[in-house]
Specification:
The complex is a heterodimer of chains A (about 350) and B (about 290). In chain A, about 25% of the residues lie in helices and about 35% in strands. Chain A has about 350 residues and is of the alpha+beta class. The mean pLDDT of chain A is about 90. Chain B is an all-alpha fold and about 290 residues long. Chain B contains 11 helices and 2 strands. The longest helix of chain B has about 35 residues. Classes of the chains: A alpha+beta (about 350), B mainly alpha (about 290). At the A-B interface, strand 6 and helix 2 of A face helix 6 and helix 7 of B.
């Protein structure tokens, strides 16, 4: 099922929560809504589900306008963060509730319950009361409940937030696999950018009711269109500096601070030259403690297991870089940092928009 | 840890509260003792059972002979009807009103909530005279005459009304505790609003519903003022008004008989209370989560 949102807005009394959201989702695509708390991603999801009514705009499933359709007629399945299972019923009843409401026969319900519960790995739990299950098992029941009616669209509202880290990683790939095998269109709301990056075909990044970007994970990571997208996606976050761009002898240079100037390669030449510019570079695109580079002093070292996060500073200018453990860098040491200028980003300091990709 | 000796080791922390509680409980304990002992005595002097001549030891079962009187059983039935229909009425109205207040955003919602707060502050006593006039008025209207003055229906109506403010507040509180996601899930599965209310939400607040019904039943079972004020017919009287009559019609008053009937009325209440104690405590300490 294709989904299209055309100029969707939402206001609650006088508060504008969503401002003109436009997006198209292809059949079978897995789209993530990513953003900080309060950015409007869950609101958008609930509008697609039919639980909230859009203040204006048109929602289409395939080619049908569904604005006036109630949730049960939209052929959707939804998985909630809190699972929202009917705790006074057992697993079987939870799974088949929607079928029971559609007056399906017991034979049909039994068959569907068997297939779905086995797909979710909970076939042996059909008689148990939901309250007796672990978090992971409850999550599977919730997913099964959404899938049993073979919906055209699957909606997820931060479904893994209540699980422990290990289980989260495991369920992430399971959800992705099921969605891929079934080929059902899916919308996945999350504030966790790693989840979005690893699961989605395309990510819609939102902030304060405005959509900042809607693109594939690699484009969002490598070609961010706004500073917000650039710093929100990627861990540790991108370093941002106030810089000045200088042209000299047909080459472009960027001055980070007094005495620290780097050459900008032609592929990274900005499309426009606003008065104030910010430069962004990800920690993984810096080489710390190598032979060449600009001089900096090590401020702090934070081991995280796989990498060591090195915070460097020079004249009040701070940034973070990464180093593989086993290096010989020490705190307060003076080291050289080289910048991979092929990966650098430039932004207009006032509009916070990228001047490379806009 | 070394043993402390002397006055420090005496468990004052446990003894003193116990002593204080004991001092306050003694009147109650003595009162209950008196009731029980006097039901089995001809009469009592203080706390000692005596016979008709005033000598200690007049134990008898004669006071309990009222149980053979069929009128008493008719009254018990009336009391039961009053208590149970009133409980049903309170539950029905409170649950639906509570749900609407918790979930539906309608005009005047805030002022309605505020007014229930205010209404709760009015004891039935202050409204007695006004209620009398309303009931007389209702008696004059053909179809709903059964709820008028001097009818069991009228008493039930007024009893329900006096208990609604508390009932609505409690129910609203319970519904507020249920997460929105549960209703959303039900909506997506295909439940209508009414079905969601009946099949999904009410079972979630079962403890709350149980607590309210017990409380309401006990209130109805022991209610005196409203039946007394609005029922003049002996046939429709309840146990509490019967006890009152015992105290007014005979002189001198046979307190042992009064105690016996009183204890008879008290027994179901005690019985209920023992079994539902934890529910009642939970709702009044406001800590119980429905559905767990």
């Amino acid at each position: 099922m294709r989904v299209s949102l055309d100029k969707i807005t939402k206001s609650f009394k006088k508060v504008d929560v969503l401002q003109e959201i436009n997006l198209d989702i292809k059949d079978g695509e897995f789209v993530a809504f990513l953003g900080p708390s309060g950015c409007g991603k869950t609101t958008t999801l609930l509008i697609v589900a039919g639980i909230y009514k859009a203040t204006s705009g048109i929602i289409k499933f395939d080619d049908t306008v569904v604005n006036k359709l109630v949730p049960k007629d939209r052929n959707i399945g939804m998985v909630f963060q809190s699972y929202a299972l009917y705790s006074h019923m057992n697993v079987y009843q939870n799974l088949t509730f929607s079928l029971m409401l559609r007056k399906k026969s017991k034979v049909e319900m039994d068959k569907a319950a068997k297939i779905t519960s086995e797909m979710m790995g909970i076939g042996h739990l059909l008689d148990r009361k939901v309250g007796m299950l672990s978090g992971g098992q409850q999550q599977r029941v919730a997913l099964g409940r959404a899938l049993i009616k073979k919906p055209g669209l699957l909606l997820f509202d931060e479904p893994l937030s209540n699980l422990d880290a290990r289980l989260r990683i495991h369920m992430r790939s399971e959800i992705k696999k099921i969605q891929h095998d079934l080929g059902t269109t899916a919308i996945y709301v999350t504030h966790d950018q790693i989840e979005a990056m690893s699961m989605a075909d395309r990510i819609a990044v939102m902030k304060e009711g405005v959509m900042q970007a809607y693109d594939t994970p690699s484009n969002i990571h490598d070609k961010p269109k706004t500073m917000f997208v650039a710093t929100f996606v990627g861990n540790p976050p991108m370093n941002i500096f106030d810089v000045t761009l200088q042209k000299e002898n047909e080459k472009l240079y960027v001055k980070i601070s007094e005495g620290l100037t780097l050459e900008v390669p032609p592929e990274r030449t900005p499309k426009s030259f606003p008065e104030r510019v910010k430069m962004g570079i990800r920690p993984q695109d810096l080489e710390i403690g190598g032979k060449d580079g600009l001089p900096f002093k090590v401020y702090m070292i934070e081991p995280t297991g796989r990498d060591d996060v090195i915070v460097c500073e020079n004249n009040g200018l701070n940034f973070t870089g990464l180093a593989t453990p086993g290096h010989s860098i020490k705190e307060n040491e003076n080291i050289k940092v080289s910048f991979d200028m092929e990966k650098v980003q430039f932004f207009d300091a006032d509009t916070e928009k990228s001047i490379l990709w806009n | 840890m070394t043993e402390k000796s002397g006055i420090r080791s005496f468990p004052w922390g446990k003894i003193i509260p116990f002593i204080i509680l004991l001092i306050f409980s003694i009147p109650l304990i003595l009162g209950i003792y008196w009731i029980i002992i006097s039901t089995f005595s001809v009469s009592t002097r203080g706390l000692v059972p005596v016979d008709s001549a005033g000598n200690p030891g007049g134990l008898t079962l004669a006071n309990w002979s009222f149980l053979a009187d069929p009128v008493v059983w008719k009254l018990t039935l009336n009391t039961f009807i009053l208590a149970s229909t009133q409980t049903l009425g309170v539950l029905l109205v409170s649950s639906m009103a509570g749900y609407a207040l918790a979930r539906i955003n309608f005009k005047g919602r805030k002022s309605f909530l505020g007014s229930t707060m205010v209404l709760q502050a009015f004891p039935a006593t202050t409204l007695l005279i006004a209620t009398y006039f309303v009931l007389r008025f209702i008696s004059g209207i053909p179809l709903i005459k059964v709820f008028g003055y001097d009818t069991l229906g009228g008493v039930i109506l007024v009893s329900i009304a006096t208990q609604l403010p508390l009932g609505i507040w409690l129910m609203k509180g319970f519904f507020d505790a249920i997460p929105w996601d549960l209703e959303r899930a039900a909506l997506i599965d295909g439940c209508s609003r009414w079905r969601t209310f009946r099949q999904i939400l009410l079972p979630q607040i079962r403890p709350g519903v149980a607590a309210l019904s017990v409380f309401s039943f006990i209130t109805g079972w022991s209610s005196f003022l409203i039946p007394y004020s609005f029922l003049t017919n002996q046939d429709t009287a309840v146990i509490s008004t019967y006890i009152n009559r015992l105290m007014q019609d005979t002189a001198p008053v046979n307190y042992s008989l009064v105690a016996a009937v009183g204890l008879f009325q008290l027994l179901p209440v005690i019985f209920f209370f023992i079994f539902t104690q934890k529910y009642l405590l939970a709702i009044f300490s406001g800590g119980m989560k429905g559905g767990s």
